[in-house]
Amino acid sequence: MDSSEPPPFLSAFLSRYHTPSNLRPHVTLTFAQSVDAKIAGQNGKQLILSGKESMVMTHWMRTMHDAIMIGIGTAFNDDPQLNTRHLPPRPPNPAQNGHDKPYHLPRPVILDTHLRFSPTSKLLKNYQQGSGRRPWVFCSSDAPDVKRKQDALEQAGARIIQISGVEDGHLSLPAVLKSLHDMGIRSLMVEGGARVIRSFFSASTSSRLVDSIIVTVAPTFVGDDGVGYSYDSALEGHNSGFKHAFTQVIGRDSVVGLVPVE
């Protein structure tokens, strides 16, 4: 596969974007898992599953979305950068005095009910250094000591968006998606972690919140050292509502795409 261009199957799949309503962006749920459906290590330990080739594919996917979402658990445990650093350098652009034309970077979005995001995170450091976009952090308007925490994070460069209404300790996903849509986000890539993925699956049993699913399956077993996303319990006996769209082998991994059943 030519890594200098997005994989054709990915471009074709994601070009089917449409906005289901005027209430939310198009949502692509994506994650890597082992053969036994583990996506993270126990106690928040980071679990590297994707091979080099599928990791590059994921970074191409990032360039195709307006924003990329993670939960506060992933922000704590992985301290991710959510950028496109694994993509190949672009050839010099004469119109820009020989400088490379940068790839599109998605807006980082963090779900953080109690506003625990760190002012020293890599996302904020990259923004301060001009190599990343300003993170948007969604929290509950009832979060303890929210004003002091908000001031500290905004001073570090974050934008804080307060959401009213929390269900079982989680922010209302429809409210978050509506807010993102109102702020100009038309396509959202949800990258995890397990709790966020579980929340999207669970919320989709009553109202459709996911438009595309892309799962990278690594040829390895993790066993009891890993945690999954509890797909069965999230659906609570409902039909999944998704159908197969494609399967592609990339390097050592299998990539599977699904779309909602119309």
TrEMBL record:
<protein>
    <recommendedName>
        <fullName>2,5-diamino-6-ribosylamino-4(3H)-pyrimidinone 5'-phosphate reductase</fullName>
        <ecNumber>1.1.1.302</ecNumber>
    </recommendedName>
</protein>
<keyword id="KW-0521">NADP</keyword>
<dbReference type="GO" id="GO:0008703">
    <property type="term" value="F:5-amino-6-(5-phosphoribosylamino)uracil reductase activity"/>
</dbReference>
<comment type="function">
    <text>Catalyzes an early step in riboflavin biosynthesis, the NADPH-dependent reduction of the ribose side chain of 2,5-diamino-6-ribosylamino-4(3H)-pyrimidinone 5'-phosphate, yielding 2,5-diamino-6-ribitylamino-4(3H)-pyrimidinone 5'-phosphate.</text>
</comment>
<dbReference type="InterPro" id="IPR050765">
    <property type="entry name" value="Riboflavin_Biosynth_HTPR"/>
</dbReference>
<dbReference type="InterPro" id="IPR002734">
    <property type="entry name" value="RibDG_C"/>
</dbReference>
<dbReference type="GO" id="GO:0009231">
    <property type="term" value="P:riboflavin biosynthetic process"/>
</dbReference>
<feature type="region of interest" description="Disordered">
    <location>
        <begin position="80"/>
        <end position="101"/>
    </location>
</feature>
<dbReference type="Pfam" id="PF01872">
    <property type="entry name" value="RibD_C"/>
</dbReference>
<dbReference type="InterPro" id="IPR024072">
    <property type="entry name" value="DHFR-like_dom_sf"/>
</dbReference>
<comment type="pathway">
    <text>Cofactor biosynthesis; riboflavin biosynthesis.</text>
</comment>
<comment type="similarity">
    <text>Belongs to the HTP reductase family.</text>
</comment>
<feature type="domain" description="Bacterial bifunctional deaminase-reductase C-terminal">
    <location>
        <begin position="25"/>
        <end position="229"/>
    </location>
</feature>
<keyword id="KW-0560">Oxidoreductase</keyword>
<keyword id="KW-0686">Riboflavin biosynthesis</keyword>
